[in-house]
Specification:
The chain is about 30% helix and about 35% strand. Strands 1-7-6-5-4-3-2 form a seven-stranded antiparallel beta sheet. The protein has a single domain (about 1-155), classed as Alpha-D-Glucose-1,6-Bisphosphate, Chain A, domain 4 (2-Layer Sandwich). The protein is α+β, with helices and mostly antiparallel strands. Helix 2 packs across helix 3.
């Protein structure tokens, strides 16, 4: 099954400030990944091309890291996830920046069912919470995207 899953958020900050935050991804003082609610993104030696890591059961390798532009990860696991996910950063104007996360992959076999019924729901919530976390670095009143019924159910089942 072909999967194209895209999330975007406009952050009302200059691109340079958002790029600085994205540079903290997967380090001890990560200001992007919502590791307080989700499995942390981990790489033994940080974000470097060729480095292997992931979060929870999802494993990947850093395929491309263009500081200030994009980070591309190639899936290693689960079996049947054939493709990439990536973060992209684009200046909209001098005071606002678009952050985009995309999954572009083909699933095979059991991975297709895992994606449709479980992982897609959890992934969508995780990415929106990551975007909340980026935005909350600049807000006095914090935001949190509420989880759907399915996300709450799957999180309970998978505890």
């Amino acid at each position: 099954m072909q999967v194209v899953n895209i999330h975007k958020r406009t952050i009302n900050q200059p691109k340079a400030k958002v790029v600085t935050l994205l540079g903290t991804l997967s380090i001890k003082y990560d200001k992007v990944w919502p590791k307080d609610k989700w499995p942390a993104m981990r790489f033994k030696n940080g974000l470097k091309v060729g480095e292997k890591g992931g979060h929870g059961i999802i494993r990947y390798t850093v395929e491309t890291y263009d500081i200030g532009e994009q980070i591309v990860f190639r899936f290693l696991k689960p079996k049947g996830f054939n493709g990439i996910h990536k973060f992209e950063i684009k200046a909209i104007d001098a005071k606002s920046t678009e952050v985009k996360h995309s999954i572009i992959m083909k699933t095979e076999g059991l991975a297709t069912l895992k994606w449709i019924f479980v992982i897609r729901w959890l992934h969508d919530a995780l990415i929106e919470n990551a975007f909340d976390r980026i935005e909350n670095n600049f807000l006095e009143t914090k935001t949190f995207t509420k989880w759907t019924f399915w996300v709450r159910i799957w999180r309970y089942i998978l505890k």
